[in-house]
Write a structure and sequence with these properties.
This protein is mostly helical. The protein has one domain (2-141). 83% of the residues lie in helices and 0% in strands. α1 (2-32) runs antiparallel to α2, α1 (2-32) runs antiparallel to α4 (117-141) and α3 (84-112) packs antiparallel against α4. It starts with a helix and ends with a helix. The mean pLDDT is 93. The chain crosses the membrane at residues 12-33, 54-73, 85-109, 121-143. InterPro entries: DUF474. Keywords: Membrane, Transmembrane, Transmembrane helix.
């Protein structure tokens, strides 16, 4: 029952995480470009604050459940080329680490005041691509 709960939590948080990225890249960014600068700036600020409040919890639950689900398979990482499962598992973990790296880079760029609207858009696109690749690996692990 714990495994099912963790798996469900992990799946729901992945949906929330990728859904947020999808919304930002394909809906919010194109619409905001059509708004006047003052309105776009205000909307961006308010949405950014709310998204950060929510996404931090989503990421914490997503990664927490992911670590709990991955823990029993940690021995498989000793030889990542031993099977398709272990190779995909290793790639999935690498992609998860790269996503964390994106967020660390974003935090550093924000602190230094060096992130532009274009940079944020490119970062969101990169995050979405990495997240979709991670989902592909996750699904393929149990099929291939």
């Amino acid at each position: 029952m714990l495994y099912l709960s963790l798996k469900t939590l992990h799946l729901l948080m992945a949906i929330a995480f990728i859904g947020t990225l999808f919304f930002q890249v394909f809906i919010l960014a194109p619409v905001s470009r059509q708004l006047p600068e003052d309105m776009r700036s205000r909307m961006s600020s308010l949405l950014g604050q709310q998204a950060r409040r929510v996404i931090h919890w989503v990421a914490l639950l997503l990664y927490g459940a992911g670590i709990a689900l991955a823990w029993p398979h940690r021995q498989a990482l000793a030889d990542p080329l031993a099977s398709t499962f272990t190779l995909l598992f290793s790639i999935k973990l690498l992609l998860a680490a790269l996503i964390i790296g994106h967020y660390v880079a974003l935090i550093m760029l924000r602190i230094k005041g060096r992130i532009t609207e274009r940079g944020m858009r490119l970062l969101n696109i990169s995050l979405l691509v990495h997240a979709v690749a991670l989902v592909f690996c996750a699904k393929a692990m149990f099929i291939l």
